[in-house]
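Annex B. Sample input.
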Amino acid sequence: MSIYEVIIPGNHNLKTINDMIAGEEAGASEFQSNIVNYSNNKLVNLCTFKTLPDGTIPKPLTIVDYDDPQPGGTKKVWTGAMMVKGENTAVAAYRKS
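Annex B, continued. Sample output.
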């Protein structure tokens, strides 16, 4: 499996970020982490994904504000910072268990 990066603009809300990650994961990959980085003089989310075998779709992932409660039936897979609506925001990622 290889690792690759995808830029998600920092002006999106969490729903849009979740949708963009789900779309990437639908192509047989799995979200691993994110760092806030610069691209074209703007702060962006530089998401790291791991490729999976063809046809594999991971269980659904949900990213929420760090202080929000854990969604039911999930396990925490990552915590860190993301640009959300132009703000550097602490978030947590949960995957269905």
